[in-house]
Design goal:
about 70% helix; single chain; flat
Length: about 100
């Protein structure tokens, strides 16, 4: 399936590259698991960053990954305060 829109096609290709990299690095088989890991990690990082830095990071992401990053985001109580271990736990909980 193609969209016929070059920017969307490029973003789909980049997203698939990211997912394949996650599969390779983690030695996983499920693209759905790779997606969940990407989503959980992006959200854990996003929620810990000051708002300005979170928006700056998002501006550097491919279009579809940017949508995943922003999905469900609110500015209330941001950034969250927690330690590195908590970021890892929050990421792992989504997988």
């Amino acid at each position: 399936m193609t969209t016929g829109v070059k920017n969307l096609e490029n973003s789909i290709d980049l997203t698939n590259i990211w997912l394949r990299d996650i599969l390779t690095q983690l030695k996983w088989q499920s693209k759905d698991s790779a997606y969940q890991a990407l989503r959980g990690t992006l959200h854990a990082i996003r929620d810990r960053l000051p708002v300005e830095e979170a928006v700056d990071l998002a501006s550097q992401l491919p279009l579809i990954i940017k949508g995943i990053y922003y999905d469900g985001w609110t500015l209330r109580d941001k950034p969250e305060k927690f330690k590195k271990r908590r970021v890892c736990q929050k990421s792992a909980r989504t997988i």
